Amino acid sequence: MTETAQDQVQDQDRDRVREQAGPQDGTAGRESEPRADCVLCGDPTEYPASTRGATLCPVCEWQEAQRTACSG
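and the corresponding structure tokens:
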């Protein structure tokens, strides 16, 4: 797959996850802490900004899991 085709697939995956996830905060009326940004793509994650370590959005988490699972 070419680099631009791979980028397009990643963008489509990211959009699909956002549509399925709905609101990111899941607080239902409670005040929430701002969400941390993904360290790979910069999109909001499911984690609060105070989370330590490398935070990834659902799409990047899934892609990272695929890469590490196949690294045999």
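(Above: one complete record from the training split.) The longest strand covers residues 44-48.
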